[in-house]
């Protein structure tokens, strides 16, 4: 009987322990469900708030400026700072989820009542609600001295003031710090005439304030060049070129030909000459070296002593001689492969190529004979 009582007592204790264990498990499950429920509710509210308009009833317009070169994260932060969206992180996630891209820089008028899709569509189409006060157009193949003239004609900035900045060491170094992936020590070479020559991109720039500073103008131009260059950075690296060397070659190609096909052909000629090695012997570098405009380059010009003169110096000149169009950069990193070492342009603008000097002379005699009123070069 004693053994039986002990056994019954043990069974009761185990039943009691099991009951307690079940209660504990149930409590843990309930607590977990509550935590998950609260967490899910909070997460839902967080996301829902981020997706909804800041204030559906507030149509007051807010001016928002999206600078050139802004990333999606930059745009999200700007919109949140202006209280146009509720949450920058949700905006970024939403844009990524919908695979949206191609946002345009500019000044917009947006409101708190706009849906995210409406804001995204406005930024994608570049519908600028505030028209620029003025714009400055920088053509392809323009050097810094000409850019200074253009800026002076459109703003209150004096031409000499602009050029002073272009040789101001402190200013140049500040731009190098701001654009370290674009500008390096090569631009400070003592033979380089203007450190930023070739780096001020050729497009039309809109301005939304009356008196932009030189710093603001240059920053806009460098941002555009950086964006353009980094589309080709892998090809530049594959060529074994620095960005400075690539833009130097690009600028020469820009000044030597207009058509995309000719630019690739001429790029191939320059690569062949660099491999020989042979001087590039390209007339635009002589004109840049002289700093003067001439209808054509004469024999006397070819002997002009200057680091930029590629008749007197081998290899690339110290730096670019102008800014560029994208297809000139493309030609610089994607040359046409051939065996030509010479080319000459006819008076009609057609280019003729030769593998040796004798053939080149024949092309000159046939397609570009000296005119009576001009001295033969």
TrEMBL record:
Instruction: Look up and give the membrane topology term.
Output: Single-pass membrane protein
Q: Which Gene3D superfamilies does UniProt cross-reference here?
A: Classic Zinc Finger, Endolytic murein transglycosylase
| Signal peptide limits | none
What keywords is this UniProt entry annotated with?
A: Cell membrane, Cell wall biogenesis/degradation, Lyase, Membrane, Transmembrane, Transmembrane helix
**Region listing for Disordered, in residue ranges:** 358-377
* UniProt name for this protein: Endolytic murein transglycosylase
Query: Hey, where's the site called Important for catalytic activity on this chain?
Result: 256
Q: Which organism is it from?
A: Alkalibacillus silvisoli
- The top EC class, named as a word, is lyase
Q: What is its main location?
A: membrane
| Enzyme Commission code | 4.2.2.29
The yes or no answer to whether the keyword Flavoprotein is present is no
**Family listed:** Belongs to the transglycosylase MltG family.
Alphabetized HAMAP family for the sequence = MltG (MF_02065)
Q: Which residues cross the membrane?
A: 24-44
Where, subcellularly, is it found? Cell membrane
Renumbered to this chain, the Basic and acidic residues biased-composition regions fall at 359-371
As its record notes, the protein acts as a catalyst of: a peptidoglycan chain = a peptidoglycan chain with N-acetyl-1,6-anhydromuramyl-[peptide] at the reducing end + a peptidoglycan chain with N-acetylglucosamine at the non-reducing end
* Function recorded in the entry: Functions as a peptidoglycan terminase that cleaves nascent peptidoglycan strands endolytically to terminate their elongation.
